[in-house]
Structures are given as C-alpha cells and as structure tokens.
From TrEMBL:
UniProt keywords, alphabetically: ATP-binding, DNA damage, DNA repair, DNA-binding, Helicase, Hydrolase, Nucleotide-binding
Matching NCBIfam families: PRK10917.1-3
Protein name as catalogued: Probable DNA 3'-5' helicase RecG
Domain Helicase ATP-binding: 262-423
Gene expressing this chain: recG
Length: 665
C-alpha cells in the first residue's frame, strides 16, 4: 500500500495514473517537478515593440473569419482594439475558437506584431477572465489536470511533509545549493523568479553531478585493456595513398595517424572519428582496414542501413581490388546458401573484410582473427549492439564513425571513450549549398526551381516525414507529395522510396536514380545516409521543422557533392513560429556549429535518443550553456569518489550501477 492513499484529494483513479508515471509515494510526488514554467505578464500596448513576444489585453471588434490552407491547417482572423488602438489578429490552427470570438469579448492575446502595428500574429488566445498572471508551473502529467496536482502538492507543503537530503552537506555549503526541502518549496510554488532560479540552479547541479560522477568513474575504470599489436605494412599503405586519386585533407591525415598509432599500441583502440557529412571518413576507414588486413587480421564494418552497407562494399571493392583483399557483403537479405558460404569463409579467414548491416551481430558469425571493428553512423546503434560486435573478437580495436559531433564529456558518458579524432574541413572545391526556409504557400517558386534544374539535366530529392497519409497528422507523406508533384511534372520521371519497400526494390530505385532515369525522387529520411548521386542538386524537405537540425544537415549532405551549385528548400507550414531554429541552416553549413546549437536547444536526450545508455537525462541542465557548472561538478565528483561520507557513497553507488559494460565484457 502506498502512502498516496492517505493524501486528501487523490482518488484511486488518479493514484493509478500517477503510478503509471512511476509516482508511487508522497516523496515521489514532492520530487515530481514541473516540466516548465510560463511567466505570464501583460504588457500595456503603448510599451510593445515590433517583434517582441507579449501578452496584451484586447477587445474583439469583429467576428472571426477562417481560411483553410490544407487538411487541418487554418488561419483565424479578426479585428480587435487595445487602448483605442485597433489592429488585425491572426492565429493559426485554432479554427475551433471561432464561435467564442465576437464583438466586445475581452481576451488576452499572446504573440507579436511582426512588421507593423496593424497586424498581430498570436500564438495563444485566452478569455480575459481565465488569464492567470504570475509564474505558472506546468507539470504535464499525462491527462492529470495541472490545477489538481498543484492543489495536492500545496497541501503537502502546508502540512510540512519533509523528505531526506540527497546531497552531501559539504557540497550544499561549498556550492551554495538550497537544501532539498527548501528546493521543493521553491520549485512548486515560487514566489518570484529569484526563488525559481535558486531552485533550478540546484536541480541543474544535481543533474550535472550525476553526469560528472559517471565520467569520473569511467575514466577510473578505463584500465588499459590489452589488444594485439597490429604489425601492419606501412609501405603498402603509403603506396596505396599515392594511388587514391586525391590528396588527403589535413584532418584525414591526422585522423589516420591517430588511428595507426592506436593500431600499433597494445592498448585496445576505442576511438570516435567525427567528421561532417562529406568530410571523407570512409577513406580513413579504408586505410585503417588495409593496415589491419596487412597485419593478417580481419575487419568487420557495420552500417545502419542496407543502402549504406552496399555503398561501402562498392567503395572498398573499388579501392582494394588490386591489393588481393577479400571483401564480402552480408545483409539480412543475403540468400541462405551465400550466407552459409560467407560465414564459413569468415571463420577460416578466407574473407578479410566483412561489410554488413545488423546482420553482422544477428548471424552466428565467428571470426578467426577479428582485429578491427568499425561502426559507421554509430549513433544509429545502441550500446548493446556495439558491444556485440566488439565481442566477436578478442579485444578488437574499435573505430566509431559519426557525422554528428559530440562534446568530449558526452563521448565519455555514451561510448566510454575519450579518444576522439576530428575531421573539421571538407575536401577542396565543394560549393556551399544555398539553403532557404519557405512557407508552404510559396511552393510555386520552388516548382520553378525544380523545372530549371531538371532542364539542366540535374536531379531532385523531395523528403517527407511520413510514408502514407495519416488521419491524425497533417504532415506530408511521400504518397501525397508524389500526387501533388505528378500534376506539375512527368510522373514517368518520378519515383517513391521508403523503408517499407523490400531491400531489392530500394536498390533498384536507387540504381535508376543513379543513372538519371529518375529526375525526382520522393523519399522519407531513408536517403539520409549512403546515397551518392553527384548529379542531384536540389532537395526539398517537407515539414522541415519536424526534423532535428543535425538530421536536416545530414539530409542536405546528399546534395552539394560535386562542383555544381546545389539548393536546399526547407518547407514549413504557414504561420509557424519557431523558425529561428531553422535559420541556422541558412547561415552555416558547418556541421559542428549546427550540432552544438542543436544540443543547446534540445539537449542530448533529444539529439542522441534517451534510449542509448549513457545519454544523460537533463531536464534542467544544458551541457553547452552550463559548461562552467559542469566543470565544478567534475571537480566535486572526484571528491565524492574519494569521500567516506554516507551521502557521497550513496551517490557513487547509484551511478556505479549504471555503468555496465565493464562488468559484462
Ligand atoms: P562521409 O564523411 O560523409 O562518410 P565520404 O567518405 O562518403 O564522406 O566522402 C564523400 C566524398 O568525398 C566521396 O566521394 C569521397 O571519394 C570524396 N573524398 C573524400 N576525401 C577526399 C579528398 N581528400 N579530396 C577529394 N575528395 C574526397
Ligand atoms: Mg559516411
């Protein structure tokens, strides 16, 4: 029985809902903090500036008119006045409010005057009598009403229910953190912004100290696990480099040197190779593989999609054909007989390099001498999958490749690796992609661009968030967009690509696109990696705001792969508010900058997926903005690890249990 049953105002139904959210006790409830706060304050109209987001009192002057753009997309417009100043108010996708809007109704509207004081674009509208000024906590506990939860928690606070401190006293003092019961008061019912910021400061610190403890513990555990030294043939590699056909960039050379140093050391390599899309990571992987093969060891290369694995296979074949290296491709669609042959050839080392998808860890592969495991687009794999590949050999060296740069602290936490190589420049001669955000109503001008590019014999990708139309979403599907475009362009020159097609069909379509038999390829984000068609110069991304920045950047990496000028059109619904985020893509094509910005805005959980072990769940802290605080936390973590204090030990144990790989390996 839980003590929640004793709480006034909580019935069995609500308790059940709370339990489903892992809130099982009064203490859990007190520690269930608001997800966000709204600071509600009205601004008198005479103080409002252009483009400033404000809430103002208005009186409605006219009935509302509704315009529909597409399915579920609408604009509601009416006239209003504030202090004798009259203007138009527009709000998107709230057509259901229309019946409540008629002359003399008093409202509070939130939004901004975008260009002039005669038109206000609202993001929110409430009846004046329902508007609550002050700091409003938002709990977002499923369908449990915020007011209900607040009432219950306030009563618990009035009853002075106390809970136990979790942080060592020393830390509270040295970092000037609020004690836990004070924190709880401030976070649930802040009297002012000062109290709220005191509370948030402690919560940020708490999140960062757990993260810092993880990092320090892993560093301590990184006992140099032994590996075989790879006695590679450096002359062979040097000859190969002369024949690649291009000069390696500075970053490629440095990364190669770092990897080669690891290969000839007796310490197991655990290196993350970061480089923007198109920076040329593959050739670095080819060099490392050739070296390992020349040292009489085998190499396994795992890629997240069949398309990419297939692409790598072609590249490796092309480069290493004349070097007497045996390369094979293994995917879940390889025919059974072929599969058996490949497995047997791997187990007696007839195959030097095996390239594949998840099949590499699913199938019963046994290597005779696995010396190097490479994982491309590593963020698409979970910790378990990476571990499984590693375990196919006796401490094989590990090379993880990624187009999304990760700060060092995160790399340690997620990959338990602090060895990072970075390729920061792109090969010479690439033109930067002209990127622009368009509202859907401007699509006609994009059709013109497509027409121009097709007339130049260039090709176009159109990326959609959905495969098929869906009842409860107004996002574009490949189906819908294909229909739309086939009214403007010859359907014989178009095709659709998505994940539900068989691998065979996917490759067939991509081959036709490669040969320029298809001009417009309507696709899901499936083309994100591994598709190389230099002649494709234009990309449309529908509902661009529904993708992450790093993903958009990766997607547009499919164009701009030659000396042709390329264009990326990010298409969003009309009237969308959060466009600032997308504008960074208009302004830079530096993936490192974009990734840092993304991380700052969305946090590591959103960017890398919370289901990856080691990705910290930050509700309050921000790795980029709170870097200074993290530095303090790292110092404190070292103290906690060596402290005898009971609370320090509890913290230490809590974190230690989350570090698994060292126990299981
Ligand atoms: P990514 O880092 O995104 O995996 P790739 O390895 O696929 O990039 O390389 C993109 C393209 O650039 C390939 O066609 C490759 O041959 C080419 N490339 C790589 N390095 C260089 C270089 N130093 N000079 C010129 N072209 C290069
Ligand atoms: Mg790549």
């Amino acid at each position: 029985m839980s003590d929640l049953e004793k709480v006034n105002g909580l019935g069995p139904k609500t308790i059940k809902k709370l339990n489903d959210l892992s809130i099982n006790s009064i203490e859990d409830l007190l520690l269930c903090f608001p997800k966000s706060y709204k600071i509600q304050k009205k601004t008198p109209i005479e103080q409002v500036k252009i483009n400033q987001v404000v809430s103002i009192d208005v009186e409605v002057l006219s009935k509302a008119t509704i315009f529909f753009f597409r399915k579920n997309l609408s604009k509601l417009t009416f006239k209003a006045q504030s202090q004798g100043q009259s203007f138009r108010i527009d709000i998107f996708n709230r057509h259901y409010l229309s019946s409540q809007i008629y002359p003399s109704v008093k409202l509070v509207v939130t939004g901004r005057f975008k260009e002039r004081f005669n038109a206000f674009t609202a993001s929110d509208i409430v009846l004046e009598k329902n508007y609550e000024e002050g700091i409003i906590a938002q709990y977002q506990l499923g369908d449990i009403n915020d007011g209900r939860i607040k009432k219950v928690i306030h009563q618990l606070l009035i009853d002075n229910i106390l809970i136990n401190e979790t942080l060592p006293k020393e830390l509270l003092v040295s970092r000037k953190l609020e004690p836990i019961n004070q924190l709880i008061r401030y976070i649930h019912i802040p009297n002012d912004e000062m109290e709220l910021s005191r509370a948030i400061y402690r919560l940020k610190y708490e999140e960062l100290i757990l993260f810092a403890l993880r990092i320090e513990l892993i560093k301590g555990l990184q006992k140099s696990s032994q590996s075989f030294i790879k006695h590679y043939n450096i002359d062979l590699v040097k000859d190969f480099i002369k024949e690649i056909g291009f000069e390696l960039t500075k970053g490629q050379k440095e990364a190669t040197n770092e990897i080669f140093r690891d290969l000839r050391s007796s310490k197991q390599m655990n290196r993350l190779l970061q480089g923007d899309v198109g920076s040329g990571k593959t050739i670095v992987a080819v060099l490392a593989s050739l070296a390992v093969v020349s040292a009489k060891s085998q190499v396994a290369i795992m890629a997240p999609t069949l398309v990419l694995a297939h692409q790598h296979y072609l590249v490796f074949e092309k480069y290493l054909k004349t070097y007497n290296v045996n390369i094979a491709l293994l995917t879940s669609e390889s025919p059974a007989k072929e599969k058996r042959q490949i497995l047997s050839d791997i187990s007696n080392h007839k195959i030097d390099i095996i390239i594949g998808t998840h099949a590499l860890i699913q199938e019963n592969i046994e290597f005779l001498n696995l010396g190097l495991a490479i994982i491309d687009e590593q963020h698409r794999f979970g910790v378990e999958q990476r571990k499984k590949l590693r375990q196919k050999g006796y401490y094989p060296d590990l090379l993880l490749m990624s187009a999304t740069p990760i700060p060092r602290s995160l790399a340690i936490s997620i990959f338990e690796s602090s060895d990072i190589s970075q390729i920061t420049e792109k090969p010479l001669g690439r033109k930067s992609i002209i990127t622009k955000v368009y509202e859907y109503s401007q699509i006609k001008s994009i059709y013109q661009l497509i027409r121009l590019e097709i007339n130049l014999n260039h090709q176009v990708y159109v990326v959609c968030p959905l495969i098929e139309e869906s009842q409860n979403s107004n996002r574009f599907s490949t189906e819908e967009v294909y229909q739309l475009l086939s009214k403007k362009f010859d359907p014989n020159l178009m095709d659709i690509l998505h994940g539900k097609l068989s691998d065979k069909d996917k490759i067939k379509i991509l081959n036709r696109f490669q040969k320029n038999q298809i001009k417009i390829l309507v696709s899901t984000s499936l083309i994100e990696v591994g598709v190389h068609v230099d002649n494709a110069t234009t990309m449309l991304i529908m509902n661009a705001n529904t993708f992450g920045l790093a993903q958009l950047h990766q997607l547009r990496g499919r164009i701009g792969r030659s000396d042709l000028q390329s264009y990326c059109c990010l298409i969003v619904d009309d009237g969308l508010e959060d466009l600032d985020r997308l504008s960074i893509l208009e302004n830079t094509d530096d993936g490192f900058k974009i990734s840092e910005y993304d991380l700052k805005l969305r946090g590591p959980g959103e960017v890398f997926g919370n289901n990856q072990a080691g990705v910290p769940k930050f509700n309050f802290a921000n790795l980029i903005e709170d870097e200074a605080l993290l530095k303090n936390a790292l110092k404190d973590a070292q103290k906690i690890i060596s402290s005898e204090d009971k609370k320090s030990k509890e913290l230490y144990d809590k974190v230690f249990q989350t570090i698994e790989s060292y126990h299981l390996d």
